[in-house]
Amino acid sequence: MTLTTPTAVTAPTPLTGDALRDRMLRIEWNTHLHRSATGAPRLRPEVVAELGRRVSIIDVRTDEELVGPLGHIPGVTPIRMADLAGVRALAPDDHPVVCVCGDGRNSDVAARYLEALGMTHVAAMDGGMTR
Predict the structure, then answer these.
(1) What is the pLDDT of residues 30-79, one digit of tens each?
(2) How much is the pTM?
(3) What residue ranges define each of the domains in the chain, with the CATH number in brackets?
(4) Alpha helices in 8-123 (DSSP H)
């Protein structure tokens, strides 16, 4: 019988700075993400508010709707539904993107479309601006 010396196990390098923030964002995202009956990825408005500027928010409403009675979220990027493919040029495929509209229906369509384009962290804000 031959005895061997145990190999030293090294601890993983702890995450810090941007890597830690990115990991925490993805954990929070995945914890709160749910699917609608049609399969659209969704996040509740409270979660979107908590995520804040750590995610990109795109508003798929018309210019008139953006200044209408529902208002808009400060810092959103307005993008028409017809121009959604351009979102991929604004953010990498794994960057978290939340779509918003008036009642949630168009943002569901937008989120499913962006997923079909290959974006991995995309969601619609559940219920839109009315909620």
Answers:
(1) 899 999 999 999 999 999 999 988 999 999 999 999 999 999 998 899 99
(2) 0.84
(3) 18-130 (3.40.250.10)
(4) 17-32, 45-51, 63-66, 87-90, 105-116
